[in-house]
Amino acid sequence: MFDIDITTLAVSAVLTIAFIAPFYWNYRKMSQKEKKLDQLIQNLKASKGINLSVKDYWNNQYFIGLDPTKKILVYSSNIHDQDPLILDLNQVKGIKMEEKHHEFNKRKIVDELNLIVHPIHKAAFPIEFYDGEKFSSLDTEPVLIKKWEKLLKPLLNRVPEKQLSA
Fold first, then answer.
1. C-beta of residue 86 within 8 angstroms of C-beta of residue 76
2. Which DSSP symbol is given to 85?
3. What's the pTM value of the predicted model, to 2 decimals?
4. Which of 7, 10, 36, 95 is the most buried (most CB within 10 A)?
5. Which tens digit of pLDDT belongs to each residue from 79-126?
6. Which among 129, 148, 146, 138 has a CA at the least distance from the CA of 110?
7. Taking a C-beta distance cutoff of 8 angstroms, is the pair 74, 86 a contact?
8. Where are the transmembrane segments (predicted)?
9. Is residue 56 a contact partner of residue 63, using CB atoms and an 8 Å limit?
């Protein structure tokens, strides 16, 4: 049979716990953030009657959600530190994806991905999906921004694309 030394068993247990602990703490931190996000969504539903049937959360901070029946968009570039922007899509005439990039060694490097929102009576403003200054690489942001552009355009008071660029 095997002779198990108590010292070896104790060292093995300590090393196993030391290996598992960071994963556990990260899991707890992420679940706390998700609970906070769920609480925010419930508060929006209760206080403003907004039912976000479509929503996305990425990079542990960005959040976007849509109530298609009321045409309300909820967005935050840092959901854990700031109140979300609540946008009535009835007051928006257009939306357009914008990509800022530069070239390095004949490769395109994306610096920013934004949805530019064109309100009816206000100046256009960006909804940030990716910022190269904050994050080192793109993940699902290009697919996500195209999804939201495609999802939002049919809900807007349509204005021709040429007028949005002006």
1. no
2. E
3. 0.75
4. 95
5. 878 888 899 999 999 999 999 988 988 888 889 999 999 998 889 999
6. 138
7. yes
8. 6-27
9. yes
